[in-house]
Every structure is written in C-alpha cells, then in structure tokens.
Amino acid sequence: MPYVNIKVTGGSEAPSKEQKAKLIKGVTDLLADVLHKNPATTVVTIDEVDMDNWGIGGETVTERRKRS
Amino acid sequence: MPYVNIKVTGGSEAPSKEQKAKLIKGVTDLLADVLHKNPATTVVTIDEVDMDNWGIGGETVTERRKRS
Amino acid sequence: MPYVNIKVTGGSEAPSKEQKAKLIKGVTDLLADVLHKNPATTVVTIDEVDMDNWGIGGETVTERRKRS
Amino acid sequence: MPYVNIKVTGGSEAPSKEQKAKLIKGVTDLLADVLHKNPATTVVTIDEVDMDNWGIGGETVTERRKRS
Amino acid sequence: MPYVNIKVTGGSEAPSKEQKAKLIKGVTDLLADVLHKNPATTVVTIDEVDMDNWGIGGETVTERRKRS
Amino acid sequence: MPYVNIKVTGGSEAPSKEQKAKLIKGVTDLLADVLHKNPATTVVTIDEVDMDNWGIGGETVTERRKRS
Fold this sequence. Notes:
- Chain A is of the alpha+beta class.
- Chain A has a single domain, classed as Macrophage Migration Inhibitory Factor.
- In chain A, 38% of the residues lie in helices and 28% in strands.
- Chain A has helices spanning 17-35, 61-67; strands spanning 3-9, 43-49, 54-56, 59-60.
- In chain A, the strands form two sheets. Chain A has a two-stranded parallel ribbon.
- In chain A, strand 1, helix 1 and strand 2 (43-49) form a beta-alpha-beta unit.
- The longest helix of chain A has 19 residues, at 17-35.
- The first copy, chain A, is elongated.
- Chain A starts with a strand and ends with a helix.
- The mean pLDDT of chain A is 96.
- Chains in contact: A-B, A-C, A-D, A-E, B-C, B-D, B-F, C-E, C-F, D-E, D-F, E-F.
- Chains A and E meet through strand 1 and helix 1 of A and strand 1 and helix 1 of E.
C-alpha cells in the first residue's frame, strides 16, 4: 500500500521510458524486500522537474550546469 | 483552510475542464460538510501524471493498459 | 488509481476517526462519480498539521485563532 | 538539508526564469537566516500549476479570474 | 539531486530504524544505478501515516485490517 | 494563492514556535515581493521530519550527525 513520489530533473536530463519503468520496478521490489509490502498496491509517481524550477545551493540547476 | 492535492493519470485519460471543476467543487463541499471548513480558504490542486510516470504493481500504467 | 492527499489542521481541530473515514469515502466516491475511477485502487492520505506549522496571510494559524 | 516545494499558478501567470531564480535564492537565504541551514544542501522545487487545475473557494482559478 | 518521498503505514506497522536505513540506501542506489544520479545529493524522506489516516478502496486501513 | 511546503529535520533540531512564525512570514513576503502574490491567500505548511526518516547520501541524518 506504499506511495512513493520520485522527483528528478527533466528536459535534456529526463529519464527515458525504459529508465522510468526500471525505477518503478526497483522501488516496488525494494518495498517488498525490506517491508514485505504487496507490490500489487504499491503506487509510484515520477515528476520531471524543469532545470529552471529546481534549486540547490541557492541557485537553479540551469545556472549550476553552466559552470560544470 | 484545508489543502488538497489530487493526482490522476493524464494524457489520453486526462480529465476535461468541466471534470476538473467538478472535482474542485466536490472536494471543497466535502470538507465543508464533514469538517465545517470554510470553502473560501480551501485550496485544491490537480496533477495530471503521464502514464509512463505512474506505476502500480511494479509496472507503468502504459504497460498495464496494453494488457487490458 | 488516483492518489489524493488532504491536509487539515490537527491538534484541537483534528478530525475524529469517523470524520476521517467519511473524507476517505467521500473523495473516493467523488473520483468514481466524476472520472469513473475504480475505488479499489484509489488511495487517500490525510495529514494533520499542527497549528504552529500552518501559515496563512503571513502568520501561523495559532496566532490567527487568538484574534478570532 | 531542508526541502521546499513552491506551487504557483502557471500559464499566463507563470513566473519568469529570473523570478524563479529569485524565489530559490530567497527561500534558501531565509532558511539560512532563521534556522542556520546550510545553503549547499537546501533543495527547492517550483511547480507551475495550470489555472484549470487550481481551485479556491470551490471553483477553478480560471473561473475566478474571469470575474475579477 | 533527486528527491524521493516514501509514505508507508505507521503505528503497529511502522518500519524499524534499520528498515528505514535500508529503504534510504536502496532507493539512493537505485537512482545511481538507473540514472547515474550522485548519491551525495539524493534526498529521501519517509512519512509514517497512521492507519486511520490512510484510505484505499474507500475505507481506512484500520477498517480493512479488521477484516483480514 | 501560492502553496508552499517546507520540510526540515525535527526532534532535537526542530524549529521553535518563533522560528516557524518567521519562516511563514518570510516566505509569504518573498512571494509578495517577487511575484506580487496576495499574502492573504498564501498558504505555508511546515513538516518536521524525524532524523531517522530523512536520508541524504544514502544514509539517515541520524547516522550522518554521529560522524560530524
């Protein structure tokens, strides 16, 4: 019955369809392994957040990526 | 003063403008009826989640819909 | 398959067990009525937020309640 | 280490790139000032919510804006 | 830089300290494996939700557990 | 009309009542300054997350604090 929300950067860094399927499978398996949660009712949602809308260290990821 | 967030599948399953208005009205009325919350300050947001980004039973809704 | 999160004030304003059951039933029915969502996979979580931890109009609900 | 999520209306009311950078900087500074949190690990995400998907007072922001 | 939120039932079903550490390690590794995300900036929060505050199938988990 | 959620570590690191009031005032002012949002309808909630339930770098904050 767990609910999991995963936020990652989108745009040019967005995960592929296959990578999203792997995240969903992986986190569902993890909850079954560690907490014996029933995979049938484990819900996962993935949010792809624009790099202008994600901040760390007081600046947007867009700015941060320019320097690296 | 309640805050409600509703996540539903988007894309070809996305609710119409009218359906979203009904959800907002319905949940605001429910909070007024059950908890006597003031509708004026009840806030509702609706997220439409892509079917590749929603998982249940360890697979994406995209995969699940193909089988049904 | 919808996921709904409801945040209301807790503490002395916390909903009772019966009120929480009514909110869960009501919002699940609403999603079935408006969007034909299957109640079996509709998930609802309720957060009770302390009045010191909820702000509106730039002040905590605790302060706001003192004046009313 | 704080995590902050800011939801504002999008579409024609969406914040500009510069405004989003100011929100991220401002909230990171606020957490450093008030709670001495390290800016390096403060994470902020901004969600721009469509005006059809945001409700207050039992109606969508789209409807509300029409009257004002 | 990902942010993950995991909601599970609390109370008598709450995960132990060790199980929570395993969930955090597991989901951080998953994001490194699938998306090459840097573990140093992967943030995970776990919410333990009271069984009266979690609904599925239109009823609380408390009610559901009584029947099983 | 913005909605802001702030998550910080709780327990021995929990913000005081006064600090929470400052965060609410500060973030409401920031949204008024940067985006001209009406403070009257700006809603802020603060979650205090147990250090066993917060992970960064693949480990709990509890473990991390022991080493520093």
